[in-house]
Amino acid sequence: GEAWGEARGGDGKIATEEGEEGEEEGEEVQIEFCVTVTQAEGESLVFTCATDGETVEVSNVQHVNGDDNEDGEETSTIPYSGPNYDELDDSVQEEFHKYLEVRGIDGDLANFIMMSHLDKEQKEYMRWLRSVSNFVSEEKQ
Q: Residue spans with biased composition (Acidic residues) (predicted)?
C-alpha cells in the first residue's frame, strides 16, 4: 500500500512571466508545489511541480528512503535530489506524468490550486486594505 495525494505548497514561490511590454494580460503565473507519494515501508517520491492553472509541470523527482537504512540505523546524509529533470528521456517524463495523473495530480488539481491561490490572494489584499485603513484612521486621532 501507498499513501498518496499529499500535496503541500512549495516555499510560496510564484513565478510570473510578463509579455513583451509587461502587459498584465501577458503575465503567466506559475505556482510551485510539492507532491509526496509514500509507500508503507516509508520510501517516498517527492515531485516538485508547478502549475499555471491548466497543466502540471514536473521540475524534479527525488527518491527518499525511510528514516532507517537497510541496517536499521538512522541515516543523516542529505539524499540525492535526482537528475536534471529536463534532461530525462521524454518517455521517462511521460511516465512520471502518468504516475501522477493516476493519483489525481492533473488539470483538475491544477485548476483547484490556481483558484485557491487567487482566493487567498484576494483575502490577503482585503486584510491589507483593512490594516492600512485602520492604521491611517488611528493616526488621524
A: 17-28
Q: List, for residues 51-64, the tens digit of each pLDDT value.
A: 999 999 999 999 99
CATH of 2-133, picked from 3.40.50.2300, 3.50.50.60, 3.10.280.10, 3.40.800.20, is 3.10.280.10
